[in-house]
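Thread: quick sanity check before group meeting

JM: Hey all, I'm pulling together slides for Thursday and realized we never actually wrote out the predicted structure for the chain we discussed last week. Dropping the sequence here so it's in one place. If anyone has concerns about the input, flag it before I start.
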Amino acid sequence: MKKVTMFVWNHFTNDARVMREGLALSENGHDVNVIAIENKKDPRARAFEKINERFTVHRVPMYPWLLEVYQNHKKEFLFSVAGVSMIVAPALFYKSWVLLSSYFIFLVGGYAVIKDRTLRRHMISFIRGSRMVMKGYSHNADVYHSHDLNTLAQGAICAKLRFKPRKLVYDSHEVQTDRTGYKPETAAKVEGFLVKFADETIVENHTRAGKHESLYGYYPRTLYNYSELYDIESEEKADLHQRLGLNQDEKILLYQGGLQAGRGLELLIEAMEQIDGGTLVFLGEGKLKPILQNMVKDRGLEERVKFHPKVPLNELPSYTSNAYLGFQVLQNTCFNHYSASSNKLFEYIMAHVPVISNDFPEIEKVVETEKVGLSIDSSRTDEIAQAVNRLLRDEDLRNELSDNCRRAKYRYNWTNEKKKLLEIYEGL
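JM (edit): ok, ran it. Output follows.
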């Protein structure tokens, strides 16, 4: 059995994939430590957390302590620096004008870093990454497991920059070279250099594995983002209708997940003007939420579109099961979206909820093969509306698709898929 240290560039409060992997390894005898980022505003993201006897979470501070002091007590901090400078400056001048000049250059440079957004972001990332490396070294693990490109350097340093190198697993949840917010050329250079240190590379599906092979010359392992296998009928059901003030017979048209750009959420609101019935419910949080709320208000759809805050992962199925149908309408804004086989689809299937999905290869293959929903051109509002209206009018079809979900979940589930992860670790 191995001692495993995983790195994640998030707070590790809603990371379903990493949680599943950590549990799978720990339940099979491996000791797992996840290094994540602390969030003092969220009690779930405290500095230390114990998941089970073999699975713990260590979170490094989100910001450098001086920056935190500056952000929380800006005026007092500046007065303190000025006061210290008045005392220190004469002493430095007495010793050497070079020391005095260096001191003031340091102050000006520090202030510039704090005030400039780009410099501040790079400084925070560097310090945070350094803390992860220090924590990772202290674990002295047999295997370092980096989730996504923004922790691959930490894993490579901890695994390989030592007298007795350790194993490194690179687990890429996204297509790093073609995703929203990333510069493709820079990502390709950084990833192309760092993957050379990885003993095993994991990607989400075969479409992405083909892309990885075209870039770096080898075919990585695949580990699909399937949901845990459970019986939704035995799960306690949260009354989402009551929480949102809806009649019990109202059909909930559910989108669950992050409210972010490129996920077709604006189109769902626009489609509601062509949809004959039901209430669109957004279950989640994200930067797009205020924009979506304004869209709803501008169109006078407050009674037909509702928002519910995100819920803990372990409670999510009890909310999902309220839905008449679910949406997975990613937009083809980048190869990362086009090649996705996101866990949202499999969460709907596990809760026996038919899906209105895009027609991208990985998602359409499941939807059409298993007959668990309707795949459409998700960039067209009219196709979204037509698909929803079809299921609203034909409850027999909707129930047939739901029954197909009951069967499909025994194929597309983490109980089956995690065997591949365990095999990877056996081979390291």
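AS: nice. The domain at 232-412 is CATH 3.40.50.2000 (Rossmann fold). The CA atoms of residues 396 and 402 lie 10 Å apart.
JM: adding both to the slides.
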